């Protein structure tokens, strides 16, 4: 009887019916369920942040046309780049592939770097050929809009990234959070021009470019570790 009971317990301990939280190496249904849930949550977070940043970029673009501020242009280019980085991340989540997610993170870093180059070139051009912006109140409002939009997108990405344990999404969230403060530099440019120092507009654009480059490096360090880990994961 003792042997029979022990055998019964052993069978129960190794039964294919697992508790809800034990999906690893367990029953295929639990694994598929968790994978689909993670995929849908990731895609939802990416699309929501895309909508927020897209709306922010559109509003800032309208203001840039009327003001011509290079500081605002630098922020606009970056916000537009942020919105586009949602595409590879969304595809990776839809594929339910951690490796694709890591490579999507690399695409995010590349987009950040390209936006820094474009903003830097335009800032230098405006230093050589100054063209002070107008409509300073609209410019300051656009900077404030950029701050709010990036802050909301950062909250969406960071919370989802931590919940889903996604380094790529976390890095993109931290990037958006830093961009929120960068957008405040646009407000500072409007104030500087109003005080009679229009040369500060392209200078602030260069400072934004430097900040973007620093964020690029930080994001690269975060994503590189994730890509390295996913590349060396052993298939189940």
Quickly describe the structure.
The protein is mostly helical and 236 residues long. It is 84% helix and 0% strand. The longest helix has 40 residues, at 28-67.
Written description of the protein model:
With 236 residues, this protein is mainly α. It has one domain (33-224): Alpha-lytic protease prodomain-like (Up-down Bundle), CATH 1.20.1510. It is 84% helix and 0% strand. It contains seven helices and no strands. The longest helix has 40 residues, at 28-67. The chain is elongated. The two termini are 38 Å apart. The relative contact order is 0.14. Residues 1-31 have low confidence and may be disordered.
What is the CATH class name? Answer: Mainly Alpha
Percent helix range: over 70%
Q: Calculate the mean pLDDT score and round it.
A: 76
Low-confidence stretches: 1-31
Gross morphology: elongated
CATH topology: Alpha-lytic protease prodomain-like
SSE order: HHHHHHH
Structural class: mainly alpha
Per DSSP, what share of the residues sits in E-state strands of 2 or more residues?
under 5%
What characterizes the major β-sheet?
A: none
N-to-C CA distance? 38 Å
Count of the domains: 1
By DSSP, the count of extended strands is: 0
> What's the CATH architecture?
Up-down Bundle
Please count the helical segments: 7
How much is the radius of gyration in Å? Answer: 23 Å
